[in-house]
Amino acid sequence: MTTPSHPADEAAELLPIATPARTRAALRALIRPDRGLALTGVGVLVAATAVGLLVQPLLGRIVDIVADGRPAGDLTLPVVLLVAVAAVQGVTTTIGLTRIARLGETVLARLRERFVERALDLPADRLERAGAGDLTARVTGDVARVAEAVRSALPEMARSVLAILLTLGALALLDVRFLLAALLAVPVQLLTARWYVARALTLYADQRVANGAQQQQLLETIGGAVTVRGHRLEEQHTERGAGRSRKAVELTMRSVHLVLGFYGRLHIAEYIGLAAVLIAGFWLVRDGAVSIGTATAAALYFHSLFGPVNAALVLLDDAQSAAAGLARLVGVTDLARPGTGKAGPAGGARPSPVPPQRTGPRREASRAAVAVDAVSHAYGPGRPVLHEVSLTLRPGEHVALVGTSGAGKSTLARIVVGVQQPTAGTVTAPGDPEDPSVVLVTQEVHVFTGALAEDLRLARPDATEADLRRALSTVHALDWAEALPDGLDTVVGEGGHRLDPARAQQLALARLVLADPALAVLDEATAEAGSAGARVLERSAEAALAGRTALIVAHRLTQAVAADRVVVLEAGRVVESGPHEELRDADGPYAALWRAWSGSRTAPHP
Amino acid sequence: MGADTAGRGVIRRAVAGQRRDVAVGSLLGACHQTGEALVPVLIGLIVDRAVVRPDGGALAIWLVVLAVVYTLLSYGFRFGARAGERAAEQAAHQLRLDVLRRVLAPHGGAEAGRPPGALVNVATEDARRVGAVNMALTLGIAAVVGVVAGAVLLLRASLPLGLLVLVGAPVLMALGHFLARPLEHRSEAEQEQAAHASGVAADLVAGVRVLKGLRAERAAVDRYRATSQASREANVRAARAAALQTGLMLTLTGSFIALVALVGGRLVLSGSIGLGALVSAVGLALFLPGPIGMLAWVGAELAKGRASAARIADVLAAPGETAGGTAEPAAPAPGELRLNGLGHAGLDGLDLTVRPGEHLGIVVTDPADAQSLLHCLARRRDPERGSVELDGVPLTELAPAALRSTLLVAEHDAQLFDGTLLENVTAAAPAGADPGPAMDAAAVDEVASALAGGTGGRIGERGSSLSGGQRQRVALARALAADRSVLVVHDPTTAVDAATEARIAAGIRRARTGRTTVLVTSSPALLAATDRVVLVDGGTITAEAPHEDLVRDHPVYRTAVLT
Asked: What is the rounded average pLDDT of the residues A370-386?
C-alpha cells in the first residue's frame, strides 16, 4: 500500500557533490556563452575604479596649491576635474554593474534551469534512494545561496577587489614606500580572514540547520494545532518550540560574536596601516621626497581602503558558502542523463546490466493492452518483493489489484507504469515503447502552486479552457472549481487556496483525463480522503477511467466490486484472479478479505 | 487603527523587555560613531601639526591619540553591536513564544483565515523584524550621536565650512533618495516576482513523483524555464535600478567633495582656516553620508517593524472559536454523552444518549455533517441550537482544555509529529502507562517492524517516512493510549487494508472495554464491532440498530457502508 520503504540498515544515498575542479569547469562552461558580457563588464568596472582613484591626487593637488599659497584661481582646474571624475565614475559604474548583474542573472538562470531539468529527469528509483529532502534542499537552499551571492556579493566583491588592487597601485605611483607602509596591514588582515572563514563556515551551516529545524518545528506544531489541542499536547509543543528557538538564538549570538571579533581584528589592521602611511608621509616630506599634498593623498587613499577591504573580507564566507552550494548544484546537473539525451520518462532505455525492460508488442501479447511477463523485483539482495508475476490486461479491461500491506501491489503498479525497473521480466505497455501511453495516479497528492488551470495544463500544455472544464466536469470537480474565488484562475497549492485531500485527488484525476492515456494505473488514489470522501472519489475515478485500460490498486473492496476482474497478490505472487462474484463465492483468500472488510460472517451481496 | 495601536504596544513591550541591552548598545554605539568621526579629523590634524613642518615628537603624540580613538571605536562597536543584537534576538524569541502560545491556546481561533505557513511567518519573520527594532534603535541613536559629533568638530574648525558640510550632506542624501525612489519602488515589486520563481522550482521538485506518474516532466521543465526567464529579466531590471542608484550617489558625493574642497581651499587661502581644517572637512564630508544613510535605514527598519508588530498583535488578539466555560468534568468521569436537540450547520435536532461504556457507531452520510458533529463534541464550536452534555454538564460550561483531558476526539486527519514511533504513541498517554495494548490494538506492531529502528525509529516530519495507512494506525494507537474516559474516533482506517482493518476493529473493542467509545465511520468492519449504530442522514437520525440488522434491513445504510 505504500511506496517501498528503505531497508533499515541502508542510509539514504545522497546525490553527488561536484569536486572543486569540476565545479570550476562547469562554471566556466556556464559563463562561456556570455564571455563578451563578462569581459566588457569587468573592463568598464576597472575603468570606473581607475577614474575614481584620481580623486585623492586631485585633493592632494588642492592641498599643495593651498600650502604653497598660490592664487585662488588655480583651484578651479582641479575642482572641475573632480566634478568630471565624479560624473564619469557614476556613469561607468552604472554600466559596469548592470553588465555584471546581467551576466550573473543569466548564468544563474541557466544553472537553475539545467538543475530543475536534470532533477525531474532522475530515474524514480534514484530519487527514492536519495530521498526527496536532499533534492528539495538543493533547489531551495543552494539555489538561493548562489543567487544571493550573485546578486549582492558578486558586484560588491568585484568593486571592492578592483578598488583595493587599483588603490594599492595608485599608492605605489605616489611613492612605492607608501605602498610598502600600507602593506604592513596585510598580514593581520590575512590572518584575520583565515581565522574568520575557518569558523564562519561551520557556524553558519549550524545556524542554517538550527533555523531550518525551528521553522520545521513551528510548521509542524502550528499546522497540527488542532491535534495538539485535542490531545492536550500544548505544554510539550510549547517546550519544543522554545527549545528550537533558544538554540537558534544561541547560534545567532555566536555568529554575531564571531563577526564582531572579526571587525575588531580588522580595526587593528586599519590602525597599523594608517599609522605606517602617516609615518612614511612624515619621513618623505621631511626628506623632501614628496609634497605635503602627496602625503595627504596617500593618507586619504589608505582611509578610503577601509570600506572595500572590510567588504571583501566579510564577503569571503558568502563566497565560500556559495561555492559549496554551487558544488551541490553542479553535482546534479553533471549526472549522466538516462537514455540518449532525450528527456523522457524514467523508463527510457539506458545501458544497464538489467535485461531490456520495455519491448515492442510481441505476438503473444498482441491482443493485450498490457502484458506483464514473469516480472520479479527485489529492493536489494534478500529483499524480494515480486516473484515472477505475470498478468495481462485486455484493452479497456479494469483490473483491481488487492492484497494485504507489503504484498507488492504498489511495486507492481510502478513497474507497469515504468517508473520502476524490475529486476527481471518484461512489461509491454500501450504506445511507443520509448514513451508509453501510461499514467500513474497515487495517493500522494500534490497541488502545484499557481493557477488551477496551469496545474491542469501540466498534463496537456495545449489544453483549451473548454478542455479543462470538460476534464473537471468528468471527475465531478467543475462545480467546486468554478465556485473558487477566481474560478479556474484561482491560485492553489502552497501559499494559495488550500484544497482538501479529496479535491486535490480529484484534480489529479482531472489531469489523468487531460493526459488521456490508453492505460491508467491508480495506486490507492482514493485512500487519503475520509470514507464519505472516498466514495465521491471512487465515482470520479470511475468516470476518469471510462474507455481506458486500468489497473487499480485497491484497499476499499468497493473498487474491486466495480472492476471487471480482481487479482489477489500475496507475498509477491498472484494467488487468485477472477471476477468479484466468482472469487467472493469461492473459499479463497479473496473471500476471506471480503468477509473481513464487510464485517460480517455471511457476506451480504451488494 | 486598532491593530496599529496594538502593534505599537507589541513594539513597546519588545523594547521595554530589553531596555538594559538597548541602553548599553546605544551608549557604546555612540562611542563608536564618535570615534569614526574623529579619525578623518585626526588625519587632518596629523598632516597639519606633524607633516607640514615635520615634527617627530608631535607625530608620536598624535599617533598615540589615534590609537586611543581606535581602541574606543573598536570596543564601542564590538560590545555595542553585541548588546543590540542580543536585545533583538531575545525580543524575537519572546514574541515567537507568545505567538506559539496563542495558537495553541485551548479556545483556538488564531488559525482562522491564516494558513499554517502564514502563522509560521508571523512567528519567525515578523517576530524577527520586531526584535530588530531594538538593534535599529541602538544604531539609530549611535548614528545621531555620530552626526552631532561630526557637526561639532566641523563647526569648531570652521563655521562656514562646517555649515556647508552639515547642510550639504543631508541635502545630498535626500536628493539621492528622492531620485532613486521610483527605482526602489519598482525594484521591490520585481524582486517579489523573482522570489516567486524560486518557489516554483521547489514546488515542482516536491511534486516530482506526481509529474513522473503523469509523464509531465517535459511540460514542467518548459514551464519552469518560462518562470525562470521572467525572473531573470525582473532581476536584471532591479539590478539596473540599483546600479543606477549607486552611480548617481557616486556622482553626487564626488561633486559635493569638489564643492567642499573649493570652498575650503578658498578659506585657507584667505587665511580664515588652517590646512588641517580643510583635510578634516574633506574627510568628514566623506564620513557623514555613513551615519546619515544609517538613519535612513533605521527609518525603513522601524516601518517594517511596525507592520510586523501589527500582524503579531492581530494574531495575539484573535477571537477564540468558543468562549467561556471554566468548570472541570467529574473525575473519574462515568462517560455518559448526551445530545439534546443538537443543531449546528447541517445537523438538525439530534437527540442521542451514549451510555457509559457503550461502543457506538455513527454513520453520517454527509461528510460536512460529520465534521460539524465532531467539532461540537470537541468543543471546537459551540452548537447553534440544543446542547451536548458530558455526564449531565453542558460542554459550554466546561473549560475546553479540561474537557479534552476527559474526552478525546481523534480526527481523521490528526497529525503525527517528528520523533520516534513510541514517542508519538505515548504523546498523550498518562505518565508511565504501558503503550503495549494500544499498539497491539491499532496494529502498530506491523508498522514498527517495517520501520528502521522499530518503535525507537524516527517517523519524520508529520510522520512522512510512514505510508498513509501506517500513519493512521499510529494516530489511532496514540488516541487509544491517551486512555480518556470518552473517545471519539473519526474514520481511523480509510487507508488500511481490509485484513488489518478487521484486526483493528477487534483491537479497539478490546482496548476500550468498559469505556465510552464513539466511532464516526462508514467502515463496515469497524461498525460490525460496535454495540449499536446510529445513522445520520440529511442532518437527522434516521435509524438506530446493530450493524448486522441495519445492513439487512436498511437500504440507505447498506448504500452508505457497502458501496
From this structure: 84
In eight-state DSSP terms, residue B454 is G
Domain assignment of residue B287, yes or no = no
Domain check: are B75 and B174 in the same one?
Answer: no
pLDDT value of position A213? 85
A261 close to B (CB below 8 A): yes
Report A:146-205 residues touching B (Cβ under 8 A): 147, 151, 155
A67 chain-B contacts, CB cut-off 8 A: 52, 275
Cell for B550?
Answer: 441495519
For A220-237, give one letter per residue: b (16+ CB within 10 A) or e.
bbbbbbbbbbbbbbbebb
CATH number of the domain at B46, please. Answer: 1.20.1560.10
Residue B164 reports pLDDT greater than 60: yes
Q: Are B107 and B321 in contact (CB under 8 A)?
A: yes
pLDDT at B231 over 60: yes
Interchain contact, A256 vs B81, CB within 8 Å: yes
Same domain, A420 and A564: yes
Please give the residue range of the domain that contains residue A549. 363-598
- Establish if B244 touches chain A: CB-CB under 8 angstroms: yes
Task: Report the number of distinct structural domains present in chain A.
Answer: 2
CA B313 to the chain's CA centroid:
13
CB distance A232–B404 less than 8 Å?
yes
d(CA B379, CA B375): 6
Nearest CA in chain B to A599: B525
Would you call A105 an interface residue with chain B, using a CB distance cutoff of 8 Å? yes
Can you read off the three cell numbers belonging to residue B368? 460536512
Q: In angstroms, what separates the C-alpha of B210 from chain A's closest C-alpha?
A: 7
Q: Identify whether the C-beta of residue B29 lies closer than 8 Å to the C-beta of residue B84.
A: yes
Could you give the 3-state DSSP secondary structure of residue A431?
strand
Query: CA nearest B244: which of A93, A254, A303?
Result: A93
Total tally of structural domains belonging to chain B: 3
Residue contacts between A and B (CB atoms, under 8 Å):
535
> Which of A294, A314, A333 is at the close of a domain?
A333
Are A139 and A99 within one domain? yes
Size (chain A), residues: 606
B212 and B264 together in one domain: yes
Can you give the residue range of the structural domain that contains B256?
Answer: 159-272
Nearest Cα of chain B lies from the Cα of A222 at a distance, in angstroms, of 6
Going by C-alpha positions, the residue among B166, B141, B140, B142 that lies closest to residue B152 is: B166
Flag if A245 and B96 touch (Cβ within 8 Å).
yes
Comparing CB atoms, the residue among B39, B495, B525 nearest residue A599 is B525
DSSP structure string for A368-400: -SEEEEEEEEESSTT-EEEEEEEEEE-TT-EEE
User: ipTM of this model?
Assistant: 0.87
The verdict on residue A578 lying in a domain is yes
Closest residue to B100, CB basis, from A216, A238, A438: A238
The answer as to whether A342 is a domain residue is no
Q: How many residues does chain B have?
A: 563
Reported confidence tier of residue A156, pLDDT bands at 50, 70, 90: confident
Whether residue B217 and residue A120 make contact (CB cut-off 8 A), yes or no, is: yes
Chain B, 170 to 209: residues with Cβ < 8 Å from chain A are 198-209
CA distance A456 to A510: 7
Q: Among A445, A442, A446, which residue's Cα sits nearest to residue A523?
A: A442
Asked if B491 has any chain A CB less than 8 Å from its own CB, the reply is yes
Asked if B523 reaches chain A (Cβ–Cβ under 8 Å), the answer is: yes
Q: Which of B206, B405, B411 lies at the smallest CB-CB distance from A446?
A: B206
* Shortest distance, CA A361 to any CA of chain B (angstroms): 21
Question: Hey, what amino acid is at B551?
Answer: V
Q: Where do the DSSP E strands lie in A136-252?
A: none
pLDDT at residue A11 in the model = 44
Q: What is the average pLDDT value for chain B, to the nearest integer?
A: 89
pLDDT at A606 (0 to 100): 47
CB B407, CB B484: distance < 8 Å: yes
